[in-house]
Design brief:
Strand 9 and strand 10 form a beta hairpin. With 381 residues, this protein is an alpha+beta fold. The chain is elongated and about 95 Å long. The protein has four domains: 83 residues, Elongation Factor Tu (Ef-tu), domain 3, CATH 2.40.30.130; 144 residues, 2-Layer Sandwich (Threonyl-tRNA Synthetase, Chain A, domain 2); 38 residues; 93 residues, Diaminopimelate Epimerase, Chain A, domain 1, CATH 3.10.310. Helix 2 crosses helix 3. The relative contact order is 0.08. The protein has nine helices and 20 strands.
């Protein structure tokens, strides 16, 4: 059994230990110490990272009471070593996990929902609740959670007896082998948990609920706490300042300004589409119609314009019309149509000659090919 220093004090950053095992595996060197401050993966939280005698520890996991450290290099069995946690990462994880307890406790007390899924990733922390929550309720939950933070409550760790547990109300009341560890945030949450936590809620700093989505009939909430919440705010603040400067409005007016800008863009797009239609009509009126295939090459055509131009030329009386959008360098998109003949042979001819792809119905075909305007005209005409 590995002596677990993180249960004696979750703020232990460095420690000395003896190497009991070190085995090379596909993932790295699997190392066992007689004692460790590295918390192993569990309770929805990744294993701690850090260094042992300067060698990087990339993960930690537990099996049958023994903690295995995954390392980038070997350590001598029987040697005495010095371990050091990546404290910034551990501290942030404790901020997230203690914040999650507060949120889950508030949701459970207010709605009776259970936290049925918890994931503490490298960027975000997500919680899955088995019932619906509105955005207005989410804002209220966030406000109450931060009240718990500002009250700077002492986070309590206890190890009740089996007799005491029978009469105790706590979350995660499932069958657990061995000693049950209870984390209590007074007035907010009582929950069985194996992970290290903050000593006081004030050290969380800030709790932000940044996203929510319907998930399996309930709600998945995304949370950022502490330094993660601060970094997120800094990025959003910088983006808001940039948008504010670009739109020449105050920072808290950016959403309204962007909404107005979007409306203006939609109006301009409508006007532009109308002008494009008129321009296309003028363009069609100027194109001379051939006796066989009227071929048009235009690099400026986009979207559905090739087809619209083809239809305008057919309405003018063209026997067959082929419109090509693109350039000799980039290749062409084409559409060919007629109201008098089957145009599929043209598509087959072009595809075979210019490594093209496409097809369609007797009255219209479309596709793409690679070739020059001169060669395509020669083949068509």
């Amino acid at each position: 059994m590995t002596e677990k220093l993180f249960y004696q004090d979750s703020y232990v950053r460095e420690f000395d230990a003896e190497v009991l095992e070190c085995e090379k595996t596909a993932q790295g060197y699997k190392t066992v110490l007689d004692r460790t401050a590295f918390f192993p993966e569990g309770g929805g939280q990744y294993g701690d990272i850090g260094w042992i005698d300067g060698i990087r520890v990339t993960d930690a996991h537990e099996k049958d009471g023994i903690i295995y450290h995954t390392m980038e290099g070997p350590l001598p069995v029987g040697g005495h070593v010095h371990g050091k946690l990546d404290w910034e990462e551990r501290f942030e994880r404790m901020q997230q996990h203690t914040g999650e307890h507060i949120i889950s406790g508030i949701v459970h007390a207010r709605f009776g929902y259970e936290n049925v899924g918890f994931h503490l990733g490298s960027d975000y922390c997500t919680m899955d609740f088995n019932g619906p929550i509105t955005r207005e309720q989410l804002r209220e939950i966030e406000m109450e959670a931060n009240r718990a933070v500002f009250r700077n409550l002492a986070v309590e760790v206890t190890y009740p007896s089996k007799e005491e547990l029978v009469h105790m109300e706590y979350r995660s009341k499932i069958e657990i082998e061995g000693q049950v560890r209870i984390i209590t945030v007074p007035g907010y949450d009582v929950c069985a948990c194996c992970a290290p936590h903050m000593k006081s809620t004030g050290e969380i700093g800030l709790i932000k609920l940044v996203d929510m989505m319907n998930y399996k009939g309930g709600e998945r909430i995304t949370m950022l706490a502490g330094f993660r919440a601060l970094r997120d705010y800094s990025i959003k603040d910088e983006n808001t300042k940039t948008v504010s400067a670009l739109l020449c409005v105050k920072e808290y007016e950016t959403a309204e300004a962007v909404s107005h800008l979007k409306e203006e863009m939609a109006s301009l797009k409508g006007k532009n589409a109308s002008l494009q239609q008129k321009l296309l009509g003028y363009r069609a009126a100027e194109i001379p119609l051939g006796e066989g295939v009227t071929a048009v090459f235009d690099p400026e055509l986009s979207g559905n314009e090739p087809r619209e131009l083809m239809n305008l030329l057919l309405e003018r009386g063209a026997a067959c019309c082929a419109v090509f959008a693109g350039t000799d360098q980039s290749g062409y998109r084409y559409v060919i149509g007629s109201r008098k003949k089957d145009v599929r042979p043209y598509s087959k001819l072009l595809n075979e000659a210019f490594n093209g792809r496409g097809g369609g119905k007797p009255e219209m075909v479309q596709g793409s090919l690679a070739g020059t305007e001169e060669a395509i005209r020669t083949k068509l005409l």
